[in-house]
Amino acid sequence: MDDALPLLDSTRRALDHRLARAQAEGRAPSLVAGLVRDGTLAWTGMRGSVDGAPPTPDTQYRIGSITKTFVAVLVLRLRDEGLLDLADPVEAHLPGTSVGDRTVLQLLSHTAGIASETPPPWWERTDGDVRPELAGVLGPQPRILVPGRHFHYSNPGFAVLGALVAHLRGRSFAEVLAAEVLEPLGLRRTSLMPAAPHARGWAVHPWADLLLPEPAHDAGWMAPAGQLWSTVEDLSRFAAFLLDGDDRVLSLDSLREMREPVAATDAEAGGYGLGLQCSGGPHALVGHGGSMPGFLAGLDLAVDQGLALVAFANATSGPDLGALIEDLVEVVTTAEPRLPEAWAPLPEADAELLALTGPWYWGAAPFAVRLLAERHLELVTLGRRGRESRFRPEADGAWTGIDGYYRGETLRMVRDPSGVVTHLDLGSFVLTREPYAPTSVIPGGVEPGGWTG
After folding, report:
1. Which residues form the DUF7586 domain (predicted)?
2. How high is the pLDDT of residue 192?
3. DSSP strand pairing (286-292 vs 365-371)
4. pLDDT digits (tens, 9 = 90+) for 257-295
C-alpha cells in the first residue's frame, strides 16, 4: 500500500524544520525525534550535540514517566494470565502496604486517591537507598482522596504496581521487565541505568545561555515511576508495538483496553487510561509524557493514522515536546494523509445473516443492521445520532457488543416455534421489523387500534 512508501522529501524537510525550531526556541542542548508509520521508523531527526557530537537514533535519553506504560503492560500480562483481576484490591496480591484497599485498576488509572509524590526528600534527585523499604515510598499518610472519585496523578502508585509485579513473578522488577518486554520486542538499548552512548541531563539557566548538570540516581523502589532510559530506535519499536500489539508480549485487544480513558484529567477533553494518557487535541493522541531532572520525553500514537511519534530532550525544562509531537503529526497528516483501506466484498454470503440486515425499529426509532466480515454485525441509527455499536459473534449464536453504547451487551435473535426470527433482543430492548406492529412481541403490548391520525 502507498503508506508503506518513504516519506516525501518535502515532508522530511518540514519535519526537520519543526524539530530545529523546537530545539532552538526551547534552548535544549540536544533534541531528537522519530516517526513511525505503519510499523516502520520512517523518519528520525536530531539537533544539538551530546558530548560535542551530534546525537544519533542510538543515543540514550531518560524517558521518565513513559516508564509507567511499560509497567502497565506488565500488569495487563498478569491479568491476561489470570493471576489477578483489575478490580482486585492491592492487598490481595501485595500484602502489607498502607494502600491495600485500593484496586489495581485505580492505581493504573491514577484514581486511587493516593499522594502524588513520596515524602521528602525529592525522590527524583535522591538515591533510592534513602527509602530502603516500600513503606518509605508511601509515607505515613498516602491516602489523601476518596478512591475512584478523581484523577490524581501518583508516582508512588506506580512504585506499588512495580512491587506487585515483582512479588507475583518472584523476581526483581528489572528482571521481569527485561524478560517479558524488552527482550521479546528487541529493545536492547532500553535500561534502568544509562549505557553509553547516552546524553547527560542539563538544567538550562532561565535568563542566560548557561548549563548546570543534573544528577541521575538509581531510584530504587521508585524506578517503575520513571527511571528507564531509551533511544529513538528502541522507543519507536515500543510505540509500534503499542499500535499493533505482539502476542509474545500483549494482545492488541489488551492494548486497546489500555488506550481507553478511565478517568477525565484536567486537560481539556483529555483522559487517562491504563498507563496511557489520552489527549483532547485535534488528533486524539494516546501516549505518555516523561520528565526527570535533566530530561524531557514524549511518546504519542495517532492510532487512526497508523502513526507514532517519540521525542527526547536533555533539558529539565524548555522545549514543549507535547506541542512538538502534535505539530509533527499535523505535518504528516496534512502532507501525506493516510489512504482509506480499499473496499472489498465479503468472501462469502451467509443467507441467515443476510436476512438480518436492513431496517429494524426500537419502538418507533429506526435503526439498521449491517453485515460485516467474520460474521460481525453493526447496528446503526438512521437519520439521527443515537446508540450504535458493532457486535462480534459468540459460539452460542448470540453476539456481544464490542464498542459504543452496547459494549459488552448481548444481541440475540428470537424465533417463533416455526423457527422464524420475530425480533432481536438487545439487553432486553426489542427490535422489530415494523414500528410497533400489532403482531410485534413488545413488552407492554401494542395498542390494538394501531397507528391513528
Report:
1. 350-433
2. 96
3. unpaired
4. 999 989 887 655 579 999 999 987 778 899 999 999 999
Reduce the DSSP state of residue 395 to 3 states and report it: coil
pTM: 0.90
pLDDT tens digits, residue range 322-337? 999 999 999 999 999 9
Residue whose C-alpha cell reads 521479546 in the numeric block: 184
The grid coordinates listed for 255 are 492494548
| 383: phi then psi, degrees, rounded to nearest 5 | 80, 0
Q: Which residue has the cell 387500534?
A: 449
Which overall architecture, per CATH, does domain 2-335 show? 3-Layer(aba) Sandwich (3.40)
Rounded distance between C-alpha atoms, residue 243 and residue 255, angstroms: 8
Check whether 47 has a pLDDT greater than 60.
Answer: yes
Rounded to a whole number of angstroms, the CA Rg of the chain reads 26
Question: For 438-447, which contacts have Cβ atoms below 8 Å and span 24 or more sequence positions?
Answer: 441/414, 442/363
Check if the beta carbon of residue 197 is closer than 8 Å to that of residue 184.
Answer: no
- 360-392 burial, b at 16+ Cβ within 10 Å, e below that, comes to bbbeeebbebebeeeeebbbeeeeeeeeebbbe
Q: Give the strand pairing for 307-313 and 295-302.
A: antiparallel
